[in-house]
Amino acid sequence: MNNSKINISKRLNECLSTQIFDLLIKCGEFTERNSASLFLVGGCLRDILLNKRPKDIDLTLVNGDSNLVQNLSEYLGGKIIFKSQFFTYKLKVNNNIIDITEARKEVYSSPGSLPKITSKCSIDDDLYRRDFTINSMALSLNPASLGNIIDPFNGINDINNKNIRIIHDNSFSDDPTRILRAIRYSIRLNFNIDNQTLSKINEFKSNINSITGFRIKNELIKILREDSRSKILLYLDTLKILDIIQPNINLNTKINEIFDNFQFKDEYIDDLILIGILIYNLNIQNIIYFAEKLYLDSIFIKTLRDTNEIKQLLQNVKLDKLKNSSIYKQLYKYKYEAIIINRYFSNENVCQKIDLYLNKLKDTIPPLNGKEIIALGAKPGPIIKEIMDYLLHEKLDGNIKNKDQAKIKATQILNK
Ligand code: CTP
Question: Residue 35 CB: number of other CB atoms within 10 A?
Fold first, then answer.
């Protein structure tokens, strides 16, 4: 493949739905009529050149502003659903989402800091602020130049040669998250990291400590959401980068096996579970250190604390030998995700008990409510809750099958 031989409209047709394709053509026509230019850019173009369906549609607008984007969305019969101070817009048109960014230059005041956006600029300047050659190309959507690819850093060549290459030597010092991105892309796409880029990774990897925890968390989550998460993590480990993110993460065969079989479905819950699995072997001090460093939210922290407590519990208590009410008493206070994380590390008998708890015991309700217990003669107060709990445990163990039996048991307690 080289620049001239790509039949780009065939590619676009193959990789995009007809709806999106038509939408992009309309966007290009409208932009040109308004004396501006519009390009398909970044990972979206990379994926199309690799004959893959892109996850997102990313466009860059040159010589246009927020008014033009507003008019464009009205022309398409859609609306802007998000607009940031950094000249980025999210358009929704008939359930299709399109991201548009005004072309911009970025300046990094210190390594790892967020860039300062200095000015609106040409498409070449915009491409120069990007990470790797394969992500620094633009495809024109204007009718006059439709399908022309701007490829200032030979990205097409690197796609052909399966190469991940930075476009300038400061790329990783500007933004050390790119080190994690390079490794993620290399495994995902089965590309090699070019030697010069690899030596820059080694030179700047300690700068990962200068990135905010929030950005490290985002990159880690992107890695964990990939199908090849275990290979990416192993590569990070080999390059001694995992240790920089968090020392003592022990990527043993069990963790790799869990990661290899993990089917990612729900974003937030699965993020919690995957992080919990990754740091399962850390002690509680390191877990808290990790959580604080990455600014994890309180739900994350509760899940990680619970995970560690359940892990200790399962080391001391044989869950598979307990009766139902005892299983309930051991687990009821813990978060669902923390139980699931421990399930991944449990033997078959314990897994069965965890499933029994999650599928049945957890949602069992006491056979009598407070009012019904008061109607039996109980005085309002803590005794009501005690009786309800007792009845619930008896029900879980199969000693109470209906309300009448529950009333008899409750009356016996009240008469004691
Ligand atoms: N980008 C960059 N440096 C970063 C993050 C992003 O230069 N630290 C640029 C790249 O050109 C990238 C584009 O912004 O292609 C969009 O970023 P993102 O959506 O994170 O990546 P994609 O390339 O779309 O890749 P992915 O398939 O991982 O979503």
Answer: 9
